[in-house]
Design a protein that fits this description.
Number of strands: 4
Largest sheet: 4 strands, mixed
Strand content: under 5%
Shape: globular
Radius of gyration: 34 Å
Number of helices: 29
Distance between the termini: 35 Å
Oligomer: single chain
């Protein structure tokens, strides 16, 4: 339909289809109300929640035709949806392929998580409250994505922070309360910073709608102010997205929130990424004849932020042993990929289609595989009540479907070929190569190295969790663990199917969702990147011809670009696997509890808070000292009593006095200093009343202090009694135990245990030596060597996880021999792995230079 002229978006005057985005926001509100009414009927409430999310998904999917494909109405062709609420600051909803793409993923994940929550929340308290706020959060989340103007977006953005806080606080433990407080603080502060940027934008341009306005911004806003506005909005949205240095709330909140809420956080954080996308790529979208210097500089900054977020989150994920905490840091790292792609797209301006496609694709992929990972961890916790991966193991025997889904999700997050993460990471890899070739800036080469290291890290922490939870030896107490319930199994299988389908059909989403969204960012449609991603000039047939896993035109796997992509994926598997083995062997994954406080971003925030608190206390002390100085001055001047000092004490006390009375006290105090003879009777009355009130406050405080002191003295006396009692018990136990110890020593001496033991060990060694001298055949040596190699490999892979399990199976002599073999065996592994890594790096560099 590209040859048909588009008249505009569908409005309410044209068709009732324009009301669809409004209903997408309103239906969850109605569902939340009905869920609250049905709180006494468990099954009815669950049906209401699932039905509401299903209807919402249906409404969002119904917008696909008008928004992506366009629609003929009364002989005219319309594309997009716009709905304005009359009389409310021209607020409303506007849907284009970008907002629709994220709305579809959000609604789909909400439906999956709602089904999962039926089983998971069945033994939790306050289930109705959880259901209500789950639907309220869906409503405002879609409100952010479908909002037409910046102010409406801000309102929905703040409401999302409030409603999702209720999901974080659900367990009502001290940890949950602390995490919710931290999360809400970041949401509110981030929202206020965002509002400051929106207000500045509106004050200069007079435009509040979310639309491209690069030309208007260039004409009306000074250069420095443009960057200030963009920075304020990026920080505001970044606090919700979890970019590094603003991510500290994320691991705390994920660790305590119920698993269905964790899975949804994979799409709720995308609200922050969506806001950054709109800020940079909609406001400053490249246009004909408009300078792209601001957009390019913003892109450069986003690349740096994305690289830091990627590697910072990955390092923390590798060092985490709590499953949810590890996945939280993983979300930070994966958000870095999205920001990274947005930065590459902005830096290349009209040539940046590849970076934008990679970011949009990764938004979908991350929501799917991170949702699957959280739901798998939740299924394990539902049956074992344990999140520490070091205390788990061997659960694939009990929960095979959960293990397979988790493995598929891990392969997705690592970027392994044939799984969904491979597609978006390949596009992001191409985008950074394009930026490097375009600019020749070595910073982009460094960013490519960070991208590869983050991919290696994803393999490490993903496989680490899977092996420690599902593989290896199963603890005795988990041998009777039951499989996951059927209502958990359905969402898990659904997400795994999506992960594999996208991995096998990488061009499907480029054709249906990602490609159409590129048209709204002002990219040059004749550029090579745009044409292979989504050729708008093709009316029928294949629009997306980029060879990712195979060439879409020939279905061949032997295209040079496909082989290059597969080589990159293979390097990720090889290098990530090698680092994974080394990490287990040398105990790198045990560093969580020994992380220096100076490297913790959370500790930096706490130090800042302590500094501010100290400054405020110092100011209060200074103010009180000034007050005492004034009082001393008044008394030394022999003024009439000390009403002035008492007035100042009253002003800073908790007594609530009407404002006009305080003004009388203030006026009387001034007159008392300057001209006491001019005091009115009312001023004298209120000055005396102030003095009486302060005397009462002082008397109350003295009484409170006396009572507290009495309590403290009683407590100290009781503690002293307890210490004396416990000391007496310990002495009695020791007196009973010492005779027993002496008796044991006498028996050991009489039986001469040590000489007998030494003689037995000597005979055993002789027997072992004779056995070895007899069996020296070549075949036997080969089998002995093979056995020791297997033992060595097992210990290298599992010594960190399973401790000294081999000592229970083999003799002490075998263990000593095997440990000697480990040293030589691991040296060979390191040399071989290093050689393979060098070969592949050299080969990859050759490919880069050839192309």
């Amino acid at each position: 339909m590209s040859h048909v002229e588009v008249l505009g978006p569908v409005t309410r005057e044209v068709s009732q289809l324009a009301t669809l985005p409004m209903w997408a926001v309103v239906v969850p509100l109605i569902g939340a109300f009905l869920a609250g009414l049905s709180r006494k009927v468990e099954k009815l409430r669950n049906v209401v929640v699932v039905a509401t999310t299903a209807v919402t998904l249906g409404i969002v999917l119904a917008m696909y035709g008008p928004v992506v494909q366009g629609i003929h109405i009364h002989g005219y062709f319309y594309k997009g949806i716009e709905f304005t609420i009359k009389g409310i600051l021209a607020a409303g909803f506007k849907v284009d392929p970008v907002s629709l793409l994220i709305a579809v993923v959000t609604s789909f994940l909400w439906l999956v998580s709602s089904i999962y929550a039926i089983s998971y929340m069945s033994h939790k308290h306050a289930r109705t409250r959880f259901a209500v706020f789950l639907l309220l959060a869906l409503s405002v989340d879609l409100g952010v994505l479908l909002a037409k103007d910046w102010f409406s977006l801000f309102v929905f953005f703040e409401m999302l922070g409030i409603f999702s806080t209720m999901l974080v606080i659900h367990e009502e433990t001290k940890e949950a309360l602390d995490a919710a407080k931290l999360y809400l603080s970041f949401c509110i502060i981030g929202g206020l910073i965002l509002l400051a940027g929106v207000v500045m934008l509106y004050s200069y341009t007079g435009v509040i709608d979310i639309q491209p306005m690069a030309d208007l911004i260039e004409k009306t806003i000074p250069a420095a102010t443009r960057y200030i506005i963009a920075a304020l909005m990026i920080i505001g949205f970044g606090a919700k997205a979890g970019i590094f240095f603003l991510h500290v709330w994320l691991p705390e909140a994920y660790q305590v929130a119920p698993t269905p809420a964790n899975a949804l956080s994979g799409v709720m954080t995308k609200v922050g990424a969506y806001g950054i996308l709109r800020t940079v790529h909609t406001l400053y979208a490249p246009a004909e004849g408009i300078s792209t210097a601001t957009l390019t500089n913003l892109g450069y900054g986003l690349v740096l932020i994305g690289a830091l977020t990627m590697i910072g989150g990955a390092i923390n994920a590798m060092l985490s042993s709590n499953c949810k905490r590890m996945l939280a840091y993983s979300s930070v790292s994966q958000m870095g990929y999205i920001i990274f792609g947005l930065g590459c797209a902005a830096y290349l301006a009209q040539e940046g289609a590849m970076g934008m496609a990679g970011s949009l694709y990764h938004i979908i992929n991350h929501a799917l595989f991170k949702g699957a990972l959280f739901l798998c961890v939740g299924a394990v916790y539902f049956r074992t009540h344990e999140l520490d991966m070091r205390k788990l193991g061997g659960l694939w025997r009990n929960m095979p479907i959960t293990a397979l889904v988790c493995l598929a999700a891990v392969f997705g997050i690592t970027g392994m070929p044939f799984f969904n993460g491979y597609v978006s990471k390949t596009l992001l890899h191409h985008s950074i190569i394009e930026a490097w070739e375009h600019s020749g800036n070595s910073m982009f080469l460094f960013a490519e190295i960070i991208l590869m290291l983050s991919a290696f890290s994803a393999w490490i922490y993903g496989m680490k969790m899977w092996i420690m939870v599902f593989a290896g030896k199963r603890p005795e107490k988990y041998k009777s663990v039951k499989p996951e319930p059927i209502l958990m199994r359905i969402p898990l299988i659904t997400l795994a199917t999506c992960i594999v389908f996208i991995g096998l059909r990488p061009n499907f989403l480029l054709e249906k969702l990602v490609g159409p969204a590129l048209a709204f960012f002002g990219y040059e449609t004749s550029s090579h990147a745009y044409r292979v991603l989504y050729n708008v000039h093709v009316s029928e047939g294949i629009r997306s011809t980029i060879p990712i896993l195979y060439d879409p035109r020939t279905l061949s796997f032997f295209n040079s670009e496909v082989l290059h992509n597969l080589l990159s994926g293979g390097m990720t598997v090889l290098c990530g696997g090698a680092l994974f083995i080394l990490g287990f062997r040398f105990g790198w994954f045990k560093l969580e509890n020994r992380t220096p406080e100076g490297l913790s971003v959370k500790n930096w925030y706490l130090a800042l808070a302590r500094t501010l608190r100290f400054a405020l206390r110092s100011f209060a002390i200074l103010r009180w000292k000034v007050h005492l100085g004034i009082r001393s001055y008044i008394l030394s001047a022999e003024r009439t009593t000390d009403e002035v000092a008492l007035k100042m004490a009253l002003a800073i006390s908790d007594e609530k006095v009407p404002l006009e009375k305080l003004r009388l006290i203030e006026s009387g105090a001034i007159k008392l200093i300057e001209a006491p003879e001019n005091l009115t009777e009312e001023e004298i009355f209120w000055l005396r009343k102030a003095m009486i009130r302060v005397d009462e406050i002082l008397a109350e405080e003295k009484e409170k202090t006396r009572i507290e002191l009495g309590k403290a003295l009683k407590l100290a006396a009781r503690m002293e009694e307890i210490i004396i009692e416990e000391r007496s018990r310990a002495e009695k136990g020791l007196r009973r135990f010492m005779p027993f110890v002496k008796t044991m020593e006498e028996k050991l001496t009489e039986e001469k245990f040590e000489p007998v033991f030494e003689k037995t060990m000597e005979e055993y060694r002789k027997l072992r030596f004779g056995y070895r001298s007899i069996t020296k055949g070549a075949l036997h040596k080969f089998f002995v060597w093979l056995r020791r190699m297997i033992i060595a490999a097992t210990i290298v892979l599992s010594e960190e996880r399973f401790g000294t399990v081999e000592e229970a199976v083999y003799s002490a002599l075998d263990v000593a021999d095997t440990r000697r073999m480990i040293r030589s065996f691991t040296r060979d592994i390191y040399l071989n792995v290093s050689l393979y890594v060098l070969i592949f790096i050299a080969f990859s560099l050759c490919l880069f230079y050839v192309q």
